[in-house]
Amino acid sequence: MLLVFDVGNTNIVLGLYEGKKRLSDWRMSTTPPRTADEYGMVAINLFEKANINYKDVKAVVVSSVVPNIMYSLEHMIKKYFKVEPLVVGPGVKTGINIKYDNPKEVGADRIVNAVAGHEIYKKPLIIIDFGTATTFCAVGIRGDYYGGCIAPGIKISSDALFERAAKLPRVELIKPPSVICKNTVQSMQAGIVYGYVGLVDLIVNKMKIEMRNLGEQEPLVVATGGLAKLIASESSTIQEINPYLTLEGLRIIYEKNQ
Ligand SMILES: Nc1ncnc2c1ncn2[C@@H]1O[C@H](COP(=O)(O)OP(=O)(O)O)[C@@H](O)[C@H]1O
Ligand SMILES: CC(C)(COP(=O)(O)O)[C@@H](O)C(=O)NCCC(=O)O
Ligand SMILES: [K+]
């Protein structure tokens, strides 16, 4: 079996594969940083609860945008799973041609998403990943990674509002019935959800113009990440939601590096 880790700034998402089949996936918090043994205990417990023998894991692939937990995570993988993890980074085959000023600067999660999108959809793409940050990535039909935008994520933006405004409560991130709201909670929900939909649709429409100028056909707009569903329901530009895009990209990268 193949175990993949998508290490984001809020969550570490684990995916377990047998060939192309995803057997299970789990989500754990990225903070606080844990020791190798603490990561090991969590991982083994997750396998036990799923009635899966962790000793059947024969390969591990990791994508990370959180350098400070990598020592413990890699140490755990070697100690408990007895394998050397393939860590996505320079030198790992992806089939993606990174056209960033400094290709090493792009978040691994963004490249992994591009690998998955390119393989699955075989079209020019705009990939939106609603994570701690919301990333927008333009990928050409031939797998050129052109770059994109990084915006503050919905949750950290709304957390900042809750924390910094004395009279504003923490509200559930759900869509209110209108934008002219008559109470504080719905006013905040409208500002957060519709404000974010506006951010997404404006950026996507601008990226589409730039992709046309790059000679690409109309891109497919694919959303992933924890909060994709919430925004996609209101957005006029998001066409697909693929919650497992990053995990699929890690599986594909494993196959490309066999
Ligand atoms: N299935 C889900 N339903 C609702 N919220 C989610 C879900 N998965 C993740 N989230 C929330 O979405 C945000 C982004 O999660 P995630 O995409 O894992 O972030 P990152 O990749 O930056 O770690 C987090 O605040 C997380 O709590
Ligand atoms: C933008 C990100 C923080 C998004 O990561 P996440 O929200 O999943 O934690 C990550 O892709 C990153 O650290 N990128 C490096 C800078 C860049 O891509 O230009
Ligand atoms: K992510």
Automatic annotation (TrEMBL):
<comment type="pathway">
    <text>Cofactor biosynthesis; coenzyme A biosynthesis; CoA from (R)-pantothenate: step 1/5.</text>
</comment>
<feature type="binding site">
    <location>
        <begin position="107"/>
        <end position="110"/>
    </location>
    <ligand>
        <name>substrate</name>
    </ligand>
</feature>
<dbReference type="Pfam" id="PF03309">
    <property type="entry name" value="Pan_kinase"/>
</dbReference>
<dbReference type="GO" id="GO:0046872">
    <property type="term" value="F:metal ion binding"/>
</dbReference>
<comment type="subunit">
    <text>Homodimer.</text>
</comment>
<feature type="binding site">
    <location>
        <position position="132"/>
    </location>
    <ligand>
        <name>ATP</name>
    </ligand>
</feature>
<feature type="active site" description="Proton acceptor">
    <location>
        <position position="109"/>
    </location>
</feature>
<keyword id="KW-0808">Transferase</keyword>
<keyword id="KW-0630">Potassium</keyword>
<keyword id="KW-0547">Nucleotide-binding</keyword>
<dbReference type="GO" id="GO:0004594">
    <property type="term" value="F:pantothenate kinase activity"/>
</dbReference>
<protein>
    <recommendedName>
        <fullName>Type III pantothenate kinase</fullName>
        <ecNumber>2.7.1.33</ecNumber>
    </recommendedName>
</protein>
<keyword id="KW-0418">Kinase</keyword>
<feature type="binding site">
    <location>
        <begin position="6"/>
        <end position="13"/>
    </location>
    <ligand>
        <name>ATP</name>
    </ligand>
</feature>
<dbReference type="InterPro" id="IPR004619">
    <property type="entry name" value="Type_III_PanK"/>
</dbReference>
<dbReference type="GO" id="GO:0015937">
    <property type="term" value="P:coenzyme A biosynthetic process"/>
</dbReference>
<dbReference type="InterPro" id="IPR043129">
    <property type="entry name" value="ATPase_NBD"/>
</dbReference>
<feature type="binding site">
    <location>
        <position position="184"/>
    </location>
    <ligand>
        <name>substrate</name>
    </ligand>
</feature>
<dbReference type="GO" id="GO:0005524">
    <property type="term" value="F:ATP binding"/>
</dbReference>
<feature type="binding site">
    <location>
        <position position="100"/>
    </location>
    <ligand>
        <name>substrate</name>
    </ligand>
</feature>
<comment type="similarity">
    <text>Belongs to the type III pantothenate kinase family.</text>
</comment>
<keyword id="KW-0963">Cytoplasm</keyword>
<keyword id="KW-0067">ATP-binding</keyword>
<comment type="function">
    <text>Catalyzes the phosphorylation of pantothenate (Pan), the first step in CoA biosynthesis.</text>
</comment>
<feature type="binding site">
    <location>
        <position position="129"/>
    </location>
    <ligand>
        <name>K(+)</name>
    </ligand>
</feature>
<dbReference type="GO" id="GO:0005737">
    <property type="term" value="C:cytoplasm"/>
</dbReference>
<keyword id="KW-0479">Metal-binding</keyword>
<keyword id="KW-0173">Coenzyme A biosynthesis</keyword>
